[in-house]
Amino acid sequence: MKTLILLTVVLSSVLAVTAKPVEAVEPVEETRELQEENLVSVAEHEAGEFVPEAGEPEMSPEEMAPSVKGRFFVCPAGWERYKSSCYLFVSAGKSWSNAAANCKSFGATMASAHDLFEYSFLQQLTRRAGSSVAWMGGLYFQGWRWVDQSPWNYNFWSAQHTVSRYQCLHVNTGAGWANNNCGITWPSICRKGTDTC
After folding, report:
1. For residue range 85-102, what is the model confidence (pLDDT) as tens digits?
2. Rounded distance between C-alpha atoms, residue 161 and residue 166, angstroms
3. 10 Å Cβ neighbour count for 94?
4. Residue range of the domain that includes 163
5. Whether residues 46 and 140 fall in one domain
6. Taking a C-beta distance cutoff of 8 angstroms, is the pair 197, 75 a contact?
């Protein structure tokens, strides 16, 4: 055992003496110039001042717009952004079907909720408008479904009444959603996706 320890100490000493220190390598000047040139090209491209060199394809603003639009969009005046959609609280009381038609006139649908965070946003939007209820896009037709065609993959019921008389869904700011008579006139919430904002 002593021999093994002695050999390890001697071997590490020899390796320490013969090893060369590693020096930091500075980038070649050509590489640095190329990096700076690429940064300038990217900045010019984003500012709309980019002029392609001979042989490079030229991109029109319309071709660049989808990538920029996907990352940055602004909701229309009066609409509020949440995640990748724009929402509008309509305070005028309407029946559920009139509220749906009103949203459609804006190029939108009534709002749906697919998780607790999205439903909480709808509750806050309703509460900030001074209301305690608002129609949302849930409808019973051979099962519960969202009018925006999204999957019914989340439930947050506070009360579920018989669907033979109460086929329309509404936000309740104090609890989960509930179904009620579609003819009641309440405020509503419209939603537009990023592709329609």
Report:
1. 999 999 999 999 999 999
2. 6
3. 18
4. 80-193
5. no
6. yes
Write out pLDDT tens, residues 95-136.
Answer: 999 999 999 999 999 999 999 999 999 999 999 999 999 999
CATH number of the structural domain spanning residue 109: 3.10.100.10
Given a contact cutoff of 8 angstroms between Cβ atoms, the answer to whether 97 and 182 are in contact is yes
Q: Is 46 helix (H, G, I), strand (E, B) or coil?
A: helix
Tokens of 56: 């490079």
Question: Do residues 156 and 84 share a domain?
Answer: yes
Specify the pairing of strand 144-146 against strand 85-94.
unpaired
- Strand positions, DSSP E, 33-176: 80-82, 85-94, 109-110, 133-140, 144-146, 157-159, 168-172
What's the Cα-to-Cα distance from 136 to each of 26, 33, 90, 116, 191, rounded to whole Å? 61, 57, 11, 15, 10
Q: How many domains does the chain divide into?
A: 2
Residue showing tokens 């021999």: 3
Q: What DSSP element (H or E) covers 105?
A: helix 96-105
Question: What distance lies between CA 134 and its chain's CA centroid?
Answer: 23
Does residue 16 fall inside a structural domain? no
Residue type, 24: A
